[in-house]
Amino acid sequence: MTLMKKTLFLIAILLLSLTAGAQTVTDYSVSTEPAFFTANQQVKVIFDLKSFDTAANWGGDVYLWIWLSDPDVGNPSDQGTWANTADAYKMTYEGNNQYSFTFTPSSLWPNVDASTIKKIGVIAKAKDGTGDKKTSPDYLLDVTAPGVLEIQNSVTSPYIGTAGESLPVSITTSESADITLSLDNTVLQTTTGTSLDYTATLPQSGDHWLITKAQAGTEIKYDSVFVTIRQDLTGTLPAGYHKGINYVDDTTVGLVLWAPYKQDVYVLGEFDNWQPSAAYQMHKDGDYYWITLKVEKGKEYLYQYLVDGTIKIADPYTEKVSDPWNDQYISSTTYPNLIAYPTGKTTGITSSFQTAQTPYNWQVTNFTPPSPDSLVVYELLVRDFDASHSFQGVINHLDYLQDLNINVLELMPVNEFEGNSSWGYNPDFYFAPDKYYGPKNELKKLVDECHKRGIAVVIDLVLNHSYGQSPFVQLYFKDGAPTAQNPWYNQKSNFENPDAQWGYDFNHESAATQQLVDSINSFWMSQYKVDGFRYDFTKGFSNNFKPLATDPWGSKYDADRIRILERMADQVWKRKSDALVIFEHLADNNEETVLADYNKGILLWGNMSGSAQNAAKGNVANNNSDFSWASYTQRGWIKSRVMGYMESHDEQRVAYVAESEGYSNGDYNIKDVPTALKRIELNAALFFTIPGPKMFYMFDELGNDKDINVPSRTGEKEPLWSYVDDPNRTDVFQTYAKLFYLKRNYDIFSTTDFTYSLNGVTKWIKLNKNNQHVVVEGNFGLTDADLSVDFPVTGKWYEYFTGDSINLTNNSYMVNLAPGEYRLYSTQKFTKDKIVTDVPTVPVKDNPLQVWPNPVQNSLNLSADEDMNRVTVYSITGRVLLDKGFPGYGKTSVAIQADGWPQGTYIVKVITTSGKLETRKVMKY
């Protein structure tokens, strides 16, 4: 059957952004006169630009961009360039925002055999075509071969009608033919010629086919339109049903869509061949649409909703989507056995349900996150952390993170976002993990494995905005913006500043939005056992529009915003009393003070990147490197809730700044990599010891010195695991790890009794608690400096990093510090100064495997009670250094050469002949 629809063909456009950026959704239509044309026939193509404001946005004039679909032929030679289309292709204004262009295909491509011209692509655009000054996606015109019979029907399939409706039908053929129009098996009208017009009376109920047959000589063509009759299906929502997917039992699924102001909804899927069949029209209960389906146990089904006959969306509450554009680029290694998209049967993103799924078997069911005062947060982008860009890839490196002594893993957005490769701040589905990172149970396993290691998990949620693929947006959308009926979104951005506009703004005053936000938060805490959330751009959670001139980033005090945010935090804590609630707020201090002190205390990002960069590169004059704003006391807060960071995903890397802009004095040159890395350690010593929660971005602990803007700011970055082979970089790792161990294990580093001087060439911090004291000091200058600090008490003080000690007979102590040098003195000797858990000596009778010496320098010895079948040695990054069988050794020691290993932590795994698996952690100095 041939189905050709050209005239008044409506295209729903989704200009999709793969990273955070502007997005539009617009309607336009294209028609041709005549409806059918050959390559040697003149044709007029007409663009109805409908809601396009070409005068304001395109400069008024509209140009045609035209090409042959054959890539070897391409564009006409006289068309000009995309940035400067030739004036000959300027279209004619027809009135009512319609533009036309008349041409003969064979004349545009005189060197092309006219018989090979089958399809012609067209776009309407501004002369320069920049930005969104074009229609999209491409529209293809079919070129009819001479003497070939084709049919066009004015009714688009599928058609949803009402009982007894009079439906006008117009049939056009490319050649004179005998034309027959039938409804199912009943002939409605016949004629001979190139057109047939008829008004059909639709049946009372059921599914039907409107069939056109055209015969010219021996050639016969058909056109079929599927017709279903809309019913008045009111019915009470079954008890216990909620929005989205309801698994009643292994063979029964209930689907619920909440859609105010809509008239009817059909479920589309393989069960109805993706057509709006009468059997799959949903029942209506107020603003709820619902249906109960009988399904095959354990089978995965893809489905969509067809709303009011024109809006096709995936279920907003689905936990998995099938994407026709991006799934093809997801490897089977990352996501095994990914269900295939139903190509040719539907369009757009589909949702998924499956009964009798194997539940994840949680190993840790009662994890308690650390207290806010002691948080050490590692911000991580799954895409760039491991080459596999997968949850499993992160799991493979958890021993590394455990050795780093972090206690919170903060994942940049992991719910479905548009495209595959993204930072994730362009969300579309809020309940579905992004498949580019792997199956949902791998994310659950990641959380579980973190909890096993004492690491809490926080996920980044983007609830300021959504993008055009979101079904919440698509349900109520017209003329490039959400409509006034949209329950969740504002019709325009809250900000006049274009740099603060992303996607479509949530209206957080709306009860529907608040309910959705609470559902999202509850879902991730209950289903994935996450320990809290980092909320992106919480300054946008208000409808008080911010003037561009006076407050472009909406930082001024906003009581309505505070009320909205406090309500959300309360609902999170209602569901999980110890949840970590973190805002990227960055507003004026008078507002942040209220939030920090509210209830359990909201954690607020504290951006200290400017000071950290200046400190690292040696620009310490005029308070340029002042760290004090990372202290809650400096801000006047009651609670320690400022989450200070020297860099997040957003900022240029501090090590890169040091190496590219570092100052020098004589032989001391910060641009030298080893020197720059020592400056990173110096920053860490005087920053992470400021009491209160701290955060850093992945690979900072190895001195990440890659330019954030290469290849682009949000573009993919290479994981830096090769850095663990560089002793200068593992020194940074060890400094970080040692500082974090102190922060996690000694409550003096969370004391409320502390003083500091953090704004000069030399900086110091004093901590006091329970008659214990710590003094941290460092030289941020370019020359040696004498630093005199009054120590709180006399007596013996221990230097943490060197293991040295001093005896003070008076409180004043002067130390000479080389540039970049730092010290940490304490009255208590901190015995835990390695970056890995000690391996205790265990009697052979209790443990068959002995590994010594630990730490190792040159040779590592192994012995066991029974034969060792295989020995594998891994670096902390998961890299295999040795994998070899050692049969028949019994208790005989096996020597492994370790002198070529870089400094760091290693994992030794031994499998004995009886199948026992033994694991040991070993340090190499």
TrEMBL record:
Q: Does the keyword NAD apply?
A: no
Which InterPro entries does this UniProt record tie to the protein? AMPK1_CBM (IPR032640), GH (IPR017853), GH13_cat_dom (IPR006047), Ig-like_fold (IPR013783), Ig_E-set (IPR014756), Secre_tail (IPR026444)
Q: Which UniProt keywords apply?
A: Signal
* Signal peptide start and end residues: 1-22
Q: Where is the Glycosyl hydrolase family 13 catalytic domain?
A: 379-743
Entry-linked SUPFAM superfamilies: (Trans)glycosidases (SSF51445), E set domains (SSF81296)
Highest taxon in the source lineage: Bacteria
Q: List the GO biological process terms.
A: carbohydrate metabolic process
Which family does the UniProt entry place this protein in? Answer: Belongs to the glycosyl hydrolase 13 family.
Q: What name does the UniProt record give this protein?
A: Glycosyl hydrolase family 13 catalytic domain-containing protein
